[in-house]
Amino acid sequence: MYKTHGCGDLRAEHVGQRVELAGWVNRRRDHGGLTFVDLRDRSGVVQTVSNPELSQEAHAIAEQVRSEWVLHIVGEVRVRPEGMANPNLPTGEVEVEIQELEVLNQAKTPPFKINEESEVDEMVRLKYRYLDLRRERMQRNLELRYNVIKFIRDELGQRGFWEIETPILFKATPEGARDYLVPSRLYPGEAYALPQSPQQLKQLLMVAGVERYFQIARCFRDEDQRGDRQPEFTQLDIEMSFVEREDVMELLEGVYSSLIEKLFPGRPVSVVPWPRLTYQESMDRFGSDRPDLRFGMELVNITDLAEGSGFKIFEGAVEAGGEVRGINCVGCGHFSRREIDELTEMIKPFGAKGLAYLALQESGEPRSSFAKFLPSDRLDAVIKRLDANPGDLLLFVAGERDIVLESLSRLRAHLGERLELYDPDALSFCWVIDFPLVQWDAEGQRWDPSHHLFTAPMPEDLSLLDSDPGKARGLQYDLVLNGEETAGGSIRIHDRGLQEKIFELIGLDLDTARERFGHMLTAFEYGTPPHGGVASGLDRLCMILAKEPNIREVIAFPKNQAARDVMAGAPSEIEPKQLEELHLRIVE
User: Fold this and answer.
1) Are residues 442 and 517 in the same domain?
2) Residue 320, domain CATH
3) pLDDT band at residue 71 using 50, 70 and 90 as cut-offs
4) CA distance 432 to 427
5) Is the domain of 266 the same as that of 307?
6) What is the CATH number of the domain that holds 197?
7) Which residue, of 105, 117, 357, 427, is most buried by count of CB atoms within 10 Å of its CB?
8) pTM score > 0.85 for this model?
């Protein structure tokens, strides 16, 4: 071993010990004949000092080293001279007096500073990801991710779960996003698919009698990228037999509550049991099925007050079957017209045609884009419904329900962050339940599953599958953390007849269904237990726990937002010989 201790592990109790260290030069400084080299490894940084009176040879080398050179140092730990301790460094009480110094490897000047946090273009960071990962923040993120996954493995093992790996090469069975396909060399014209999730396989493990399964699963989806998506990602996959919806939810509550208590003590977290909001309630109150409960500013429906109000924009929305809703920005009555116009432009991409406002001045005189059109009693009713006081700013959107909800939800999230309405350390969990089982796709003229096609309907809604499918609810549940969906699951269908009925409902003819899912349908005829599960996105969970803006910051080697690996240059062109072996040709 090149080292007896980590650089960041040395403390006062090590004074007088001879130690060996190895790591990277964090910084070198020359002071009056002495050369100081701050040496860094993943455990931290320690100051080492070279004195020519102790070793002329080591000192000569120390004078030549530069940032990011890799060194091996042998020396003695001593207390720093009086007044020279560094209280901001865990090793700040001590230093290592260099007795022997060896250069293990030199380094070119890095394209960005590694020894300090600074703004670096993300494309440069991803191109030199191996250097980016040396930085302290990224090392912390990698350690956080490791600790989270290790805790989950240990916790589920203690709760009687078996970790079981499922295939990466599987059958192409489109479940929403596009599959990544792997052409077969042995079977011309045929291909494997990379799994979007182990959904079918974990259900088959329940048929197999496993009862409690989990996996830290790699999943692949060929979909448009955004800050919380990657072509390949990692999820905690859980499936349980002989359970009902509440059992699965309580399990994940227990695991994640324990995780935060153990690994993130002191961070404010929702008290178990976490709030349960129905899908309808979540949409009505927050305009989203991913509500951020760290702050208020809930949506308020004033459609009834808008009808016949005298304000044509409000009246027109109601007459067209739409809605009018608003939010109360407490204490923002001072917002200028320019600031309100900026908010209006922000929500236009979501379909909103405008943003009506009512600023309640401290003087009592309102400043508004529409107040003059409303009778005083109607205006007073609007103010009362939004529980507004002088100094508040009321913002309204009118139009189709979906547009109103989406626009105000985005506006609420923006203002929550801008106005610092929540504790950035807070971890606010909630469950959203009672989702619609299916949603109507007007373009395709068919019903689509709102979750996936193996989700069981609520028993009391079974008759609606024939009479009014849009009103049927699924035994589905989503876990939301700080406005981000971090897990989703459901109680599954375990009866072949019901599964075939769902296939038929969503327009999947039985011949196609049997070709794609025949292995599951057959399995359901051999004694399948009631079962359900949940999948939790570990990248997204770690992103929130690390307080990072996107999941690329907690993945060692991510793709960029165009789904490219800019470090290795993937995807790349295929050699003609490989194409020939796979019986493929490129068609321009």
Assistant:
1) yes
2) 3.30.1360.30
3) very high
4) 16
5) no
6) 3.30.930.10
7) 357
8) yes
φ, ψ of residue 403 to 5 degrees: the values are: -70, -45
**Is 444 found in the same domain as 549?**
yes
How far apart, in whole angstroms, are the C-alpha atoms of residue 84 and residue 80? Answer: 6
In sequence order, which residues have a C-beta less than 8 Å from that of residue 563 and are 6 or more positions away?
225, 231
- Cβ(453)–Cβ(520) below 8 Å: no
Q: Are residues 362 and 434 in the same domain?
A: no
Q: What are phi and psi of 294, to 5 degrees?
A: -75, -15
Q: For the chain, how many structural domains are there in total? A: 3
Question: Is the previous residue joined to 436 through a cis bond, with omega within 30 degrees of 0?
Answer: no
Is 144 part of any domain?
yes
Count Cβ atoms below 10 Å from residue 130 Cβ, excluding itself: 10
Report whether 188 contacts 197 (CB < 8 A): no
- SS3 string, 5-69, reads CCHHHCCHHHCCCEEEEEEEEEEEEEECCEEEEEEEECCEEEEEEECCCCCHHHHHHHCCCCCCC
**Across 400-474, where does the E strand assignment appear?**
429-433, 438-441, 446-449
Provide the pLDDT confidence category of residue 429 given band limits of 50, 70 and 90.
Answer: very high
Nearest-angstrom CA–CA distance, 39 and 266: 32
With respect to residue 423, please indicate whether it lies within any of the assigned structural domains. no
Percent of the residues in the chain that have a pLDDT greater than 70, as a whole number: 99
CB 517 within 8 A of CB 524: no
Residue ending a domain, choose from 353, 388, 418: 418
What is the pLDDT, as a whole number, of residue 258?
97
Q: Are residues 447 and 516 in the same domain?
A: yes
Say if residue 264 is in the same domain as residue 173: yes
41 is written with which tokens?
Answer: 């490894």
We report the CATH number of the domain holding residue 29 as 2.40.50.140
Q: What angle do CA 499, 500, 506 make, to 5 degrees?
A: 95
Give per-residue pLDDT as tens, 461-474: 999 999 999 999 99
Half-sphere exposure of 364 (CA within 13 A, CB side): 0
Q: How far is CA 415 from CA 3, 427, 457, 505, 577, in A?
A: 51, 19, 37, 41, 56
Could you tell me the residue range of the domain that residue 458 belongs to?
138-276+428-555
Please say if the pLDDT value at position 65 is more than 90. yes
Residues 246, 335 within the same domain: no
Q: Taking 90 as the threshold, does the pLDDT of residue 102 lie above it?
A: yes
Which residues have CB under 8 Å from 495's CB, separation 6+? Answer: 524, 528
Task: Count CB neighbours of 500 within 10 A.
Answer: 18
User: What value does the mean pLDDT take over residues 511-522?
Assistant: 90
Predicted confidence (pLDDT) per residue in 335-383, tens digit = 999 999 999 999 999 999 999 999 998 876 789 999 999 999 999 999 9
Phi/psi-derived region of residue 399, left when phi > 0, alpha when psi is between -120 and 50, beta in every other case: left
Q: Is residue 111 part of a domain?
A: no
Distance (Å, whole) CA 120 – CA 553? 13
My answer on whether 551 and 447 are in the same domain is yes
Identify whether 584 is part of a domain.
no
In whole numbers, what is the pLDDT of the chain averaged over residues?
95
- What integer pLDDT is reported at residue 422 of this predicted model? 96
